[in-house]
Amino acid sequence: MDYKEKIDPAKLPQHIAIIMDGNGRWAQNRGQVRVFGHQNGVESVRQTATAAAELGIKYLTLYAFSTENWKRPKIEVDALMNLLVSSLSSELGTLMDNNIRLRAIGDVSHLDQECYSQLQETIGLTSGNTRMELILALNYSGKWDIATAARKIAEDAVTGKINTDDISQELFGTYLDTKDFPDPELLIRTSGEYRISNFLIWQMAYSELYFTPVLWPDFRKADLYEAIYDFQQRERRFGMISEQIKPADDK
Ligand code: IPE
Ligand code: IPE
Ligand code: MG
After folding, report:
1. Cα three-residue angle 248-249-250, rounded to 5 degrees
2. CA-nearest residue, atom 9 of ligand 2
3. Where are the domains of the chain?
4. Cα of 110 from ligand 1 centre, angstroms
5. Nearest to 137 by CA among 52, 15, 251
6. Can you tell me the mean pLDDT for 209-237?
7. Residues 18-41: what's their mean pLDDT?
8. List of residues 6+ apart from 156 with CB closer than 8 A
9. Is 21 near ligand 1, meaning CB less than 6 Å away?
10. Which end of the chain is more exposed for a tag (fewer CB within 10 A), N or C?
11. Rounded to the nearest 5°, which phi and psi values hold at 105?
12. For the segment 42-65, what is each residue's pLDDT rounded down to a tens digit?
């Protein structure tokens, strides 16, 4: 079925976040080393980012490396970092052609020097692009984000910059690494795993969750369209009852 034609352009999520999972299994299914799966995942990133930009999605966040992923064998971590550097430079053309601005969340200053500088360079070169923001979560975890925000808030309270009475959900959000972006309405995880793996735990308080068995290197534009179509069939009640959120002409 062609889901693209069924998507209602008036009901697009502004922000989609994706846990790109299943690269290792995809490679192992082919008798290849895990890194082969990561390499093939780059095409899925390209397809997903261009499809999202073409549709009019404003923010796309991709979980590329979690704080927990440092625990993988060094050879895999090194390969992931090298792939990041080479993809950032090879995909600059894709970002420019599609008017996509690159951003990053996570403790990126602790990436190795080459990664960090390549990332900053690509972020700088794309900073004038306006169609969509592609946010890479790198050395990111939700608990890290929340704990870091709490520490900064405490520092500002100690120095008198803020009052403890001012600490609200809204203020807290401005201390998170995602302060420049709205919360994702839709969270997609590939590879058939049903967990959040310490991703945007604060920000996805009301996200719609979509799980697909497709392994990330097989994820294509059509899979994104299907996820968005599925999202559009849901009723987002935010604690209310159905009658309260139906448009007046439906009542
Ligand atoms: C996701 O694929 C990529 C990263 C976490 C960097 P995996 O490498 O986790 O693949 P599986 O889950 O082992 O198949
Ligand atoms: C989550 O995938 C992290 C990224 C996609 C970058 P993992 O494969 O690391 O998650 P777990 O270990 O299965 O929870
Ligand atoms: Mg995995």
Report:
1. 90
2. 69
3. 10-141+182-234
4. 21
5. 15
6. 98
7. 98
8. 162
9. yes
10. C
11. -125, 155
12. 999 999 999 999 999 999 999 999
Residue pair 164/154 in contact by the 8 Å Cβ criterion: no
Q: What is the pLDDT of residue 246?
A: 85
Distance CA 220, CA 179 (A): 29
Show the CA angle centred on residue 227, arms to residues 196 and 54, nearest 5°: 115
Q: Is the pLDDT of residue 250 over 60?
A: no
State which amino acid sits at residue 79.
Answer: A
Task: Please name every residue paired with 66 in a beta bridge, in sequence order, or none if there are none.
Answer: 140
Closest atom of ligand 2 relative to the 65 alpha carbon: 6
Neighbouring residues of 62: CB distance < 8 A, sequence distance ≥ 6: 17, 18, 20, 45, 48, 134, 135, 136, 137
For residues 139 and 177, the answer to whether their CB atoms sit within 8 Å is no
Global pTM value? 0.97
Indicate if ligand 1 lies below 6 Å from the C-beta of 142.
no
pLDDT score recorded for residue 154: 98
**Rounded to 10 degrees, what is the CA torsion of 91, 96, 99, 104?**
50
Is 10-141+182-234 CATH 3.40.1180.10?
A: yes
Provide the CB-side half-sphere exposure for 145 (13 A, CA). Answer: 24
CA 76 centroid distance within chain: 21
pLDDT at 39 over 80: yes
Closest to 204 (Cα-Cα) out of 229, 234, 174, 178: 178
